[in-house]
Amino acid sequence: MSFASLAFFLFLPLVFCVHWLASNRKWQNGVLLAAAYVFYGWWDWRFCFLMMASSLIDYFAGLWIDVETDQGRRKKIMVVALSGNLLILGFFKYFKFFVESFIESCGNLGIHLPAWSWQIVLPVGVSFYTFQSMSYTIDVYLGRCRASRSVFDYLTFVSFFPQLLAGPIERATALLPQFQHIRVFSSGAASEGCRFIIWGLAKKMLVADPLAEIANIAYGFSARSSAAQLFLGSICFAFQIYCDFSAYSDIAVGTARLFGIQLMRNFAYPYFSQSITEFWRRWHISLSTWFRDYIYIPLGGNRVSSAKQYRNLLIVALVSGLWHGAAWHFIVWGALHGIYLVTERALMRKDNPASRRLLSIVDTESLVPDLASVLCMLRTFTLACIGWVFFRAQTVGDGLNIVWRITTAMFHARFYADVLQLVQSWSPALAALGALILIEWWNRKSWNPFAIAHKPFLLRWAAYTMVCWYLLLFGTHQTEEFIYFQF
Amino acid sequence: MKKFLFKAAAFVLLQLSIFVPFWHPEMPHDNNYLAATIEKHHRLQTTPSPRLILIGGSNLAFGINSDSLEQELGLPVVNMGLTANLGVRFMLNEAERKIGRGDIVILSLEHNILADAGSELTEAQILEVRPASMVFFRAAELKHLIDHYGLSIVGGVLRRSLLPGSQRELDDEKSVYKRQSFNPSGSFTGHYGKGSKRGPLQVLSIPKMSADIREKIQEFARHCRERNALCFYTCPPYPAAQLSRGQCEINENLAQLKEIPDLIVLDSPCDHAYPPELFYDTCYHLTEQGAYERTRTLALELRSFLNSRR
To answer: Which of A249, A342, B93, B236 is 20 to 30 A from A486, comparing alpha carbons?
Structure first.
């Protein structure tokens, strides 16, 4: 079930009412658990068994690790549990890719193997819940949290439907206790949740989906698209993926608040970043902190030599690329970000005042940023866009070709005239994007730009009514699936 | 909790109070081609039996002159033909529950729609103009439509009510594809007097009939018999020159239809093969002259069959 669907708008109020009618915490968790499996099974009920299997591996591993005193055995249990999770993930997400790559490599060496013909369907959200479940086992092993005794509490934690399909990837230390204690309804939190949902839907339906049309046209037939189309399409894709994914996170956070659950922040205006390092602190925060805590720090983090730090950064970036999909263009995207991060780390030492500015969050004092900040933001955005070209392209070759065509076309005046013409023809979608950037810049100090709880009642309701009607009348022409569902 | 629920309910009521004054189930301001389904259903509901009900895609809308047919047979005509994109199952379901004693039901299904379901986009659009038509879909189809087009349907209903003319479909100014182009009995007359567009007629590939659709037609024909109605099949019009290209599949499909016990096949594809100048824009859409000829042929076939039964 997608958030931007009619089914969800019928499902959510029903689950909300039944949840709060439940007399105690156990029943409330039961309602959430049942709702999660209905929500997940809405696509294909068979995948519910996969989610259950993945969850149970970690549940039993957690219990065992918790009672086991021998450190060596604790480690073995953790390794077995993680292997089980990675096996599930590997089979559904990467098996085909590795087999096809192997066959292709053999073909290049003159050994011709029969072509791969299996069709493995990728279960929606598998990377998200597997990572959440794995982090639980690691945290129990590291003693950061105790194992859950109740299987229902644990299953509810892994399958909590608002963040099940595309995160935020929560940690057991933050989310699990919320299912283990009584939840009390808060009208303020629920209202705030509704505002998050409205804002998320507006970003998705009024900005991301119209931008998707521009990006899809440019990238759908990239060989036939003009350089100007590819240029505009790439910028639009950069904003499409941001609006789409951050919208999902906003709706997830808002929906969770309706049930008295607090989820972590996943996006903090990443395109206002002044460096790629800062970008990764603001983009998909739950995943980047997951990689930081479970890969980067165990590899030595910042406590090792510079060379090893660079190696660690590159490993994390490559794993991040591979996490997004089993394809070389995702790996190139990750590698590119790895190179950006290593270069920044090498060039900017923290003791240098200029670099300190680049590592800090965007200037929050003035409405209009200074020129240096604007240039830094533009540079970061350009680097991110180059990465997105490879992310969106079908193959690495396509990505290289697109970057080459745009770069060479930029030396011709005609290119800019074509871009202007395209901007005019797509003006409604781009105007919506412009409005979003302004609103986000204006409200960059707060998590939710639509946080208007302090405004007078009439103004608030007028704003809600206006946004809802704008959404219904202009945002429903064509609703696209959330991009991150495929990961 | 109560306070929050009260506020939420008040907000929903406020939005409804904005919408309700603009809402009219017949969408009088919507001039979209598909909105003609509203008048077609209205006529189906209000015309008493016995009557002649035409079921099929746009071949019937463009290719039958209901007024002439009514005069020839002395029975009121309800032409349900709208678009083949709705699929056979939907078209049959639309009329199934309304069939009454003594009705004559005529099926004419485009050759290319006998294998699969309709177009999802058209199905979603028909729900925008007439949400009540949701009952004509199977539960799984409706779930699929709600999952993929639910918000778009709700938005479409609102746009058609509050911002008529904002839809980006077939209703551009020059096009004849408009709701107004249908006559009261459901025949499309907007292209009358315009002759043929004379472009090359695009012919779609013709598949073999699926078991699912054959079963549905059989069930429908049985239902007609149970209601003491007669169910006929007449071939859709087709360009004579193109008939040979899909001959094998057309004949095989027709042979299957002839095996259905309660369905009377009136003619063969050759009886409704016409020269290209009698087609308006597609290989199923006849011009005014073409519609006149096809109507006359159909009336003769029907009269001859009914006379032979007496």
So the answer is: A342
Phi and psi torsions of B24, nearest 5°: -140, 120
Best mutation target among B151, B162, B163, B169 (most A Cβ atoms within 10 Å) is: B151
Question: Residue B96 and residue B100: Cα distance in Å, rounded?
Answer: 9
> Which of the residues A324, A329, A454, A477 is marked catalytic?
A324
DSSP letters for A397-453: HHHHHHHHHHHHHTTSHHHHHHHHHHHHHTHHHHHHHHHHHHHHHHTTTSS-TT--T
Q: Residue A292 and residue A316: Cα distance in Å, rounded? A: 8
**Is pLDDT of B310 > 70?**
no
Question: In DSSP terms, which residues pair with B265 in a beta bridge?
Answer: B233
**Between A172-180 and A25-41, two packed helices, what is the crossing angle to 10 degrees?**
120
Q: How far apart are CA B208 and CA B215, in angstroms?
A: 14
Number of H helices, E strands in chain B: 10, 7
Interface probe for A, chosen from B3, B4, B22 (most Cβ of A below 10 Å), is B4
How close is the nearest chain B Cα to the Cα of A17, in Å?
9
Non-local (6+) Cβ contacts of A448 within 8 A are A192, A195, A196, A199, A250
Identity at B74, one-letter amino acid code: G
Amino acid A348: pLDDT: 75
34-53 in A: which are within 8 Å (CB) of B? 42
Look at residue A358 in the predicted model and tell me its pLDDT: 47
Q: Is A324 a catalytic residue?
A: yes
The predicted pLDDT at position B170 comes to 46
Most confidently predicted of A119-128, A280-289, B167-176: A280-289
The mean per-residue pLDDT over the stretch B23-51 comes to 88
Distance from CA of B150 to the nearest CA of A (A): 5
Cβ contact (<8 Å) for B151 and A464? no
Q: Does A478 touch chain B (CB under 8 A)?
A: yes
DSSP character at residue B279: B
Name the nearest CA neighbour of B138 among B100, B106, B92.
B92
C-alpha A480/C-alpha A284 separation (Å) is 20
